[in-house]
Amino acid sequence: RNFWRAVGFDELSELYTSQLLRSLAASLVGIFVPIYLYKIGYSLPAITAMFMVWFLVRPFWAYVSARIIAAWGPKHAIALSVIIQIAYLTLVLTQEHTQNPLWIIGVVGSFSFGLYMMAFEVDFSKIKHTEHGGKELGFLQICERVGAVAGPLIGGIVATVFDPRYTIALAIIVLIASLVPIFMSDEPTRINQQIAIKGFPWRRHRRDFFVSTAFILENVISITIWPLYLGVFVLVSNTYAVLGLLTAVSTGVAMLAIMAIGKLIDKNQGKRLLNIGAYSNAVIHLFRPFVTSPLGALGIGLINEPVTAMYRMPFIKGRYDASDSVPGYRIVYFMLLEWVNAVGNVIFWGLLTLALVLGPDKFALQATFLLAALLSIAITRQRFAALQ
Length: 388
Description:
The protein is an all-alpha fold. The protein has helices spanning 3-6, 11-29, 33-39, 44-56, 58-72, 74-93, 95-98, 102-127, 133-161, 164-177, 179-182, 202-234, 239-287, 294-324, 330-358, 361-379.
């Protein structure tokens, strides 16, 4: 009776497998890149300015990505994103010797991640089943979490025992392997489409976009700022190994809750789960500035990961269903999301860079956790039809 006994290698299964490998590759290096740049001599303002450039160019890349997805299909766009991400990782890998301007890394990284996320969301939103999308999203999250557990653990050990550059090289190999499963079936969407914004029901979905900005910014603080804060001010020795272990353990705990959450979403409990998770997450953010030891960081992680899944999964499910409600504008929907999210991120990274220049680095990073608490509460302002 178990799902995995009967599953065929259909489009969803291909996406599950590809996402597992992609998540493994991203997790091998994702949390370590800002810390690596800091360790080789770049200041925190320089690193945050790179992320500001990352999102400054995102609206342009989002339009280019939409054109690519419309013309070639999301699977071919994912393949292209992997090639670009390998170029991005190569730039990071050689940065200590080449000393390229960090904005170049930001521009290339922005394109690779933006193209992948748009293509992936178009692909999954098209092939999922609305009546049990929560369960399917649960399986997807499990595949992502398996990679997210193994990635930081393996990456942290390799970076500590050998060198962070070996971790990046390993990630490139896994990225290439992630392309194999997704091309075992045809493109899920019509190709050679045209991108037309005219006629899109902006007023009906404007809340989707602005609440999504709060959602994305909260995730940015949790996924990027928090590990950077730990790596610079808390985990001062064996940084890569300890941070990788903490991330792996806390992510593993979240896996225990994911499938139960997916089933509850399909039973119309999504809104309640989202509200409980978002408010709980706000409280957790308020405790982050007081963490001073690896044990404290582990405690935050163990509590935070299941809570994150509790609000994140219903939110993503609601957003996917919202994209279903605009036939012919699916790609445009995700492109507009990218545009609005980019504006919020440019403001955030710009202000954080200014704060790091003017004041103590530690205080500036700690202030972002207070902002994340407010953003968590803002997530509850969503009005996705699927969650009402």
